[in-house]
């Protein structure tokens, strides 16, 4: 007989436009709960840095603010989801981002006899997104700061490991607008998708990070 899912298992999805603060809230949630953190954007950036075949394939899409094809992303996300550390709960950030990705996740969860606990939607208006993303700086390890809203203690240096903070290639204004357009076209239908399943929880992402948390 297959074992039943423990009721304490937390399987969360962070949903929201680029720059809404998903990564920022993920950092805080991971301090609260021991969840495996699965961020497809981070995985793809790592693949690019490692110059793997996956990284090379993803690069052209990411550079122009487009989504990496479903078949590529579904493969890496579901493989990561089946790792040992994700067995007792996970936090998905940036996946799913299209209806086919959400369908694939649903199928996989059914196969594993697990279920999504909640989908946390972080809502922020487009104008604020542009302000946030243009001021974002990241460390080598991917820790996130903002030049005005969340500055490091020492200019241009990560508080944790002292590495130089840089601007992400896809945070240039023209790419941010393309990413936002893609969000509205391909990802926002997931709001209704999960609302119909009774899983959606809405958060006002325009408030300061500590209040969103
Ligand atoms: P990904 O890395 O997932 O980027 P994203 O979803 O666009 O999200 P961001 O990382 O830009 O923003 P965030 O919401 O985490 O905000 P953050 O906390 O940093 O994806 C990158 C690319 O990879 C995609 O464009 C695509 O090409 C590809 N990809 C990834 N997943 C894919 C998938 N499933 N399918 C297909 N392609 C995929 O905050 C932003 C800034 O605001 C920071 O500076 C922060 O300090 C500041 N801030 C945060 N919260 C607040 C607040 N409450 N008030 C004020 N400032 C705040």
Radius of gyration: 17 Å
Strand arrangement within the widest β-sheet reads 2-3-1-4-7
Largest sheet: 5 strands, parallel
Question: Portion of residues in helices?
Answer: 40-55%
User: How do the SSEs run, as a string of H and E?
Assistant: EHEHHHEHEHEEHHEH
Number of strand segments: 7
Q: Give the overall shape.
A: globular
The unique ligands bound to this protein are: BIS(adenosine)-5'-pentaphosphate
Which residues sit in consecutive blocks of at least 5 with pLDDT less than 50? 1-6
**Strand proportion:** 15-25%
SS summary, helix count: 9
Q: How far do the termini sit from each other?
A: 39 Å
Subunit arrangement of the protein: single chain
In round numbers, the mean pLDDT is: 93
Helix/strand/pairing category = alpha/beta
Short structural description:
With 213 residues, the chain is of the alpha/beta class. Helix content is 44%, strand content 15%. The chain has a five-stranded parallel sheet, with helices on both faces. A two-stranded antiparallel sheet has the order 5-6.
Note the main attributes of this structure.
alpha/beta; 9 helices; 44% helix; binds BIS(adenosine)-5'-pentaphosphate
């Amino acid at each position: 007989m297959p074992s039943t899912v423990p009721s304490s298992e937390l399987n969360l999805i962070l949903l929201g436009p680029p720059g809404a603060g998903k990564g920022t809230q993920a950092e805080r949630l991971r301090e609260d709960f021991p969840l495996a953190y699965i961020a497809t954007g981070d995985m793809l950036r790592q693949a690019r840095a490692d110059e793997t075949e996956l990284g090379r394939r993803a690069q052209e899409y990411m550079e122009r603010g487009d989504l990496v094809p479903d078949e590529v992303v579904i493969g890496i996300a579901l493989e990561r989801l089946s790792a040992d550390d994700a067995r007792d709960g996970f936090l998905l950030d940036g996946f799913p981002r299209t209806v086919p990705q959400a369908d694939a996740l649903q199928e996989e969860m059914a196969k594993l006899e697990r279920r999504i606990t909640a989908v946390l939607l972080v809502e922020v208006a487009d104008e604020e997104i542009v302000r946030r993303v243009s001021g974002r700086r990241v460390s080598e390890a991917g820790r996130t700061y903002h030049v005005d809203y969340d500055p490091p203690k020492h200019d241009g240096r990560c508080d944790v490991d002292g590495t130089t903070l840089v601007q992400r290639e896809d945070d240039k204004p023209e790419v941010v607008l393309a990413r936002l357009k893609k969000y509205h076209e391909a990802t926002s239908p997931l709001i209704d998708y999960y609302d119909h399943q009774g899983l959606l929880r809405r958060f006002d992402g325009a408030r300061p990070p500590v209040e969103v948390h």
